[in-house]
Amino acid sequence: MKTSDQIIEEWLVINCQAGDRKAFELLVKRWNPKMLARVYYTTKDASASKDIVQDAWITIIKKIKTLKDPAAFQGWSLRIATHMAINWIRSNQVNRKREDIRKTTQAEFAEHSLRPDEGTLDALKRAIDELPDEQKTVIQLFYQENLSINTISGLLGIPAGTTKSRLFRGREYLKVMLENKMYQDEKE
């Protein structure tokens, strides 16, 4: 024998299926706390639980006409909410893993980033001073003044291709000089 609560619930579901807004509001009022408790039990996140339950109600209202047995509403609606909570957990785990990888990568990069020692900086300054004036000027404007190739070309009155080739040759010279310095440091 059905209880009066079960009869009322079935009546609300039938009316909701017929498009009665008031019946839907009463159904939400009746089931929202239970659904929220179930979702919170699954997610352990109060804020996410509220969002998930709200999304579950949207799905329920869209699909309620497909529910054949109004007496099955309780299990049906809780299953929808629970599946949404599980999907939230899965996506959250993927996001957490991505965030953990990002943080680990940043920490490792910070640990292993190139921090030149004083000897390397001095060697770099000496190498820049040894560059031909044309290359030294382009290197200084590009790296110390942070000017673009086009701006440097305009300042020096030379084509952008010439600026690029001077920058390239200057870098290559500095690279060789620094590699030699590191090789000598290793020998010592």
TrEMBL record:
Domain of life of the source: Bacteria
Residue ranges of every copy of the RNA polymerase sigma factor 70 region 4 type domain listed in the record: 122-173
Gene3D superfamilies: 1.10.1740.10, Winged helix-like DNA-binding domain superfamily/Winged helix DNA-binding domain
Record Pfam families: Sigma70_r2, Sigma70_r4_2
GO molecular function: DNA binding; sigma factor activity
Keywords in alphabetical order: DNA-binding, Sigma factor, Transcription, Transcription regulation
Keyword field contains Isomerase: no
InterPro entries in UniProt: RNA_pol_sigma-70-like (IPR039425), RNA_pol_sigma-70_dom (IPR014284), RNA_pol_sigma70_r2 (IPR007627), RNA_pol_sigma70_r4_t2 (IPR013249), RNA_pol_sigma_r2 (IPR013325), RNA_pol_sigma_r3/r4-like (IPR013324), WH-like_DNA-bd_sf (IPR036388)
Domain RNA polymerase sigma-70 region intervals: 27-93
GO BP: DNA-templated transcription initiation
Family designation: Belongs to the sigma-70 factor family. ECF subfamily.
Protein name, entry field: RNA polymerase sigma-70 factor, ECF subfamily
Organism name: Ekhidna lutea
Record lineage: Bacteria, Pseudomonadati, Bacteroidota, Cytophagia, Cytophagales
